[in-house]
Amino acid sequence: MDIETQVIHGGNQEDPLTGAVVPPIYQTSTYHQYELGGEAAYEYTRGENPTRFALESVLANLENGQYGYAFSSGMAAISAVMGLLKAGDHLIIASDVYGGTFRLVHQILAPLGITYTAVDTADTSAIQAAMQENTKLVYLETPSNPLMHVTDIRAASDVAHAAGKLVVVDNTFASPYNQRPLELGADIVLASGTKYIGGHSDVIAGYVVTRSKELADQIKLIQLSVGAVLSPQESFLLQRSIKTLALRLERHNDNALEIAKFLAEQDQVAHVYYPGLPGSADYEVARKQMRGFGGMMSIDLQPGLDTKYFVEHLKLFTLAESLGGVESLIEVPAVMTHASIPREIRLANGIKDELVRLSVGIENIEDLKEDLRQGLAAL
Hints:
It comes from Weissella halotolerans DSM 20190. Helix content is 36%, strand content 15%. By secondary structure, it is of the alpha/beta class.
């Protein structure tokens, strides 16, 4: 099935007990066990819940994997995958990785004896050069947050697998509608379900999908042991939102491409970071491995212009963190999403203080252009 059909019919989209087209919310913490010491399909919702199981099967289907696990946030999902590491292991991450991921690696994992190297993962030779004997994971974020760099997942996976390393891809910016990392060689795909999967800025969630039974068993153990599972209510909301994923992403893709072209023509804008622009260094790779270029982009204003004034005086683009909702959002990474990264590291990796990140929603395109036009003109 094409993904436009998968979002409606893929996975367990109905209740096996009653045939209800929409799986019910099993709002329970525990289950009646009819035989002491007997085997029960459901014992405790931290481990098993029908509503979450239904969502997990849909997510695995969308990412073309076999095993899916839903978590209470995107960072909980990332933490679960990082739980595959132990003291003495080495990790390769992208130099412009999301600030929350960097904070986890730098402030939580590093003191536990897990080392890391940050490189431009769009350069496979840089990944190769960063390999160490104790490297276990190559963690890719593509398109990256916030500079929109696109890593060739197939090429990076080939390099990593040749050295016996695992490849993990954060698919948050693309979503399974635009990109399927497991089909390109990745071992694990994860994402913040808060973003395009949820799509309405009303759910915090994350997920992990793999095709490997061995990796799945490890992730399941971490999910059960740590307990950062998605609740039945959020699982229900996420599965509901998935049904419109294809429709929403088609509009996000179209709107963002138009906005990127529009901003590239504005005198107040020095640079647009968007892989859908033919002049972008990431364009060819993105076109090869992505169905659409996504709804995310970043811009540099011309030197001397007041970034704070610009983001505070837009009317439709809401100044807020997060992304992927139906409404358009705007933020300044250095102050907001990437503030946890030391400034000297941010600057060295191209994340300037004046960088502005946009999440383009599904509003009328002319209204969005007019909002940006008046905001830029006010500068």
